[in-house]
Amino acid sequence: MTWAGFYVASFVLSAFGAWAISRHADKIGLMDCPNGRSSHCMPTPKGGGIGIFFVFLLSSIVFGLPVSFWFPIGIMASVAFWGDRVEFSARLRLVIQLGLIALVIVVGDKGEVPGGLVYLVWICFWTLFIVGTANYYNFMDGINGIAGITGLLGFALLAGYVNLIGGPVAATGVAVCLSIACLGFLPLNMPKARVFMGDIGSILLGSVFAGLIWLTAESVLDFVCMASFLFPFYVDELTTVVVRLKDGENLTKPHRRHYYQLLANEKGIAHWKVSLGYGVFQLAVGGSVLAVRQFGLPWVMILLLVWSIIFWMESWRTRKSVQLLYRKT
User: Fold this and answer.
1) Which of 15, 52, 166, 196 could form a disulfide with 46 if both were Cys (CB 3.0 to 4.6 A apart)?
2) Residue boundaries of the structural domains of the chain
3) Any stretches that span the bilayer, and where are they (predicted)?
C-alpha cells in the first residue's frame, strides 16, 4: 500500500470505529449519561476514538516508530478505554499514566542528557509534560467537534514543523495519519454528536502529541513552537485553573468553567461554532509562530505572551458577563 493509500485507510478506519461505537455502545456499556458537568442533555455513545487508537497503532508500526514509544502509550489509551466503561479512581489512573510515560522516556533515552540530577529532572519534566497534555486534552474534550478539530489542525501543524526541521519521517507520517483520523471522526461528532471521542481518543491524542514533541524537538525553540500548536487548549486550561484557585475551588472537583464551556452553555453559542472558533484561533497562533520562528526564541515567546493576553482579556470579559447574568437571575 502506498502512503497515500494508508492515509485514506486512516480516514476510513477512524470513521468506521466511530460509527461502530455509535451503533453498539449500549451493548458494551459505553453510554455517556449527562450530569452537572456535561454540556449535552441526552445520553450519547462514547469511546468513538477507538478508530483513532487503531490508526495510531498501525501507523506507528508501518512508519517505524520505536516500540518503546507506541506500546506504553497504547496501554495508557487502553486503560482510558476501560475508564470509559467502568469508573475507577482518578488517582490510580494518574499513577498508571505517570509510570507508563516515565517508561517511554527512560527506555527511549535519546542519549544527549547528562546523568545524575539533570537526568532525573529531564525525566520528570517530560513525564509531567506528556501526562499533563494528555489530561488537558481530555478536560478540553467537552463539546461537539472541539477535540476532533484541534487534533486535525494540531497534528497537521506538527507534521509540517517536523518536516521543516528535517525530523524523523516516522513522526511526520504518524502525525499526518492522526490528523486525517481526526477528520474521519468529525462527521459523527459535529455539528450533532452521534458519538463522543471518549477518554480513549482524547487521552491518546494528547499523549501522542506531546510525545512526538519529546521525540523530535532538538532545541527549546522547537519545543515552544510545537507546543504552541495546541495553544488554545493550554491557555484555556491554565486560565481556568487560575480562576478556580482564585475562587478557592477544589481543583479535583468536576466543573464547567472552561472558557469554551461558558461560551457553549452560559452564552448559548452552538457547539460547532465554538469549536470552529477555537480552530481558527489555533491556526492564527500556529501560523504566526511559524512566521516569527526565524527571528528566534525571544520573539516567539513575546508573540505567545501577546496571544495569551488577548485570550485572558476575552475570557475575563465573558466571565464578567456570565457573573452579571447570574446576579440578574
Assistant:
1) 196
2) 3-327
3) 49-82, 94-111, 117-136, 143-162, 168-188, 195-217, 295-313
